[in-house]
């Protein structure tokens, strides 16, 4: 047993987890690699070639690296638990008129849980991933901070992790930028890793067509929801749509409706199969409520605190005043923000530190 301890590393076969393996190995940890098979794209009825972390090529790449570095590697089939939770939730959220966040749920409820369970079985002290984020212990809390590479920072998708999970988590890439990781791959003879394409799509929707995915997963969905009304804020009918689950807040393209000015989706009302449209200015809001919260840096928040709030992954964030009431957070932005989408994650930061997050709740209907 290494004096550093034994670590179970999630390996996707991509450059980040592969270099994480190399770093842990060089630092003297006893590494055990594990690749999680979460999804079999062929079962969705899609036509695209299977790619990304679940493909056979990626699994083989992870195994080969483990063989080269001399540590054991396992494949873990979690397709059933992934499908039962992540995919069912993905479908249910769109049917409820919300926009889901599958990567957040997967990290929180599937990947970390599966890793920790197998880490205990394999007598591993820690688990590790190739995320670009930093972690430290402070005031008896395990605090996550943004990754050094702001373009690759992945702290947004980690807000749901509880303290007991963070306590055993290592982020080997936390002190590196993506450019340094690529150069490290080249320097160590892994040129193919440095040039390997990366997927930014949802793993189980690799063709990025979530509408087609919903149609394949829910029998008769298209027929059940077709023909609902597009309306404006006053309820005036503007036209017919293809079904409310096939639209998202802020969407402009694909509405196939013209009234002389660009229109955007303002609200989705599943109960009446209604999609509310309006101008870009009407997308601007200043308040929201966030539920199902998880706090990371602090055990609780003061009555009022100013934090940077992100309402989607690529959102640079906006300053806001956040107050906690029971199990919800009330957020008042200092300036209006555009396209607040129920179901998406709201994630809060204090400087570089991740305070926590939650899911944006559906607000009172804007129809008057």
Instruction: Please compute the radius of gyration using only Cα atoms.
Output: 22 Å
Write the H/E string, N to C. EHEHEHHEEEHEHHHHEEEEEEEEEE
The major β-sheet equals: 6 strands, antiparallel, barrel
Main β-sheet, spatial strand arrangement: 12-15-14-13-16-17
Task: Enter the CATH topology name of the largest domain.
Answer: Rossmann fold
> Could you name the CATH homologous superfamily of the largest domain?
HUPs
The CATH architecture of the largest domain can be given as: 3-Layer(aba) Sandwich
**SS-based structural class?**
alpha/beta
CATH C-level category of the largest domain: Alpha Beta
Mean pLDDT: 92
Strand content: 25-35%
In helices, the fraction of residues equals 25-40%
What number of structural domains do the residues give?
3
What is the tally of beta strands?
A: 17
Distance between the termini: 67 Å
* Shape by Cα distribution: globular
Task: Tag the structure with descriptive keywords.
SH3 type barrels, Elongation Factor Tu (Ef-tu), domain 3, 368 residues, Rossmann fold, 17 strands, globular, six-stranded antiparallel beta barrel, 9 helices, alpha/beta
Give a description of the structure.
The protein is α/β, with parallel strands linked by helices and 368 residues long. It folds into three domains: 6-195, Rossmann fold; 219-279, Adenine nucleotide alpha hydrolases-like domains (SH3 type barrels, Roll), CATH 2.30.30.280; 282-360, Elongation Factor Tu (Ef-tu), domain 3 (Beta Barrel), CATH 2.40.30.10. It is 26% helix and 28% strand. It has helices at residues 15-26, 56-69, 79-95, 102-121, 163-166, 178-187, 191-195, 210-217, 221-225, and strands spanning 6-10, 30-37, 73-77, 126-128, 133-138, 141-146, 169-170, 229-231, 237-240, 264-269, 274-278, 284-295, 305-310, 318-325, 328-338, 345-350, 353-360. A hairpin with a 2-residue loop joins strand 5 and strand 6 (141-146). The relative contact order is 0.13.
């Amino acid at each position: 047993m290494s004096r550093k301890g034994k670590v179970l590393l999630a390996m996707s076969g991509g450059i980040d987890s592969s270099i994480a393996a190399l770093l842990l190995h060089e630092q003297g940890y006893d590494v055990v690699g594990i690749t999680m098979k979460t999804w079999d794209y062929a079962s969705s009825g899609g036509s695209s070639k299977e790619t990304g972390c679940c493909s056979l090529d990626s699994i083989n790449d992870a195994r080969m690296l483990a063989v080269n570095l001399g540590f054991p590697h396992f494949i873990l089939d979690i397709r059933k638990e992934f499908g039962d939770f992540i995919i069912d939730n993905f479908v249910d959220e769109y049917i409820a008129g919300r926009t889901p966040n599958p990567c957040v749920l997967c990290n929180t409820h599937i990947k970390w849980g599966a890793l920790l369970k197998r880490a205990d079985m394999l007598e591993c002290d820690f688990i590790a991933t190739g995320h670009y984020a930093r972690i430290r212990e402070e005031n008896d809390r395990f605090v996550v901070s943004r990754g050094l590479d702001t373009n690759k920072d992945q702290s947004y998708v980690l807000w749901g992790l509880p303290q007991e999970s963070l306590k055993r988590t290592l982020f080997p890439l936390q002190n590196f930028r993506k450019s340094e990781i690529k150069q490290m791959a080249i320097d160590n003879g892994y040129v193919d890793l440095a040039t390997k394409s990366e997927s930014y799509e949802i793993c189980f929707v690799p063709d990025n067509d979530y509408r087609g995915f919903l149609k394949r997963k829910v029998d008769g969905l298209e027929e059940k929801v077709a023909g609902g009304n597009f309306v404006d804020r006053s309820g005036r009918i503007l036209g017919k749509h293809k079904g409310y689950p096939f639209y998202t807040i802020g969407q402009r393209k694909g509405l196939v409706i013209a009234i002389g000015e660009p229109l955007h989706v303002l609200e989705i009302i599943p109960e009446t199969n209604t999609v509310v449209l309006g101008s870009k200015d009407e997308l601007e809001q200043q308040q929201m409520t966030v539920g199902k919260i998880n706090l990371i840096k602090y055990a609780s928040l003061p009555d009022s605190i100013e934090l940077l709030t992100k309402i989607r992954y690529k959102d640079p964030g906006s300053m806001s005043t956040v107050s906690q009431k029971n199990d919800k957070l009330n957020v008042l932005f200092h300036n209006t923000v555009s396209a607040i989408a129920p179901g998406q994650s709201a994630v809060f930061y204090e400087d570089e530190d991740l305070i926590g997050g939650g899911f944006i709740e559906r607000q009172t209907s804007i129809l008057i």
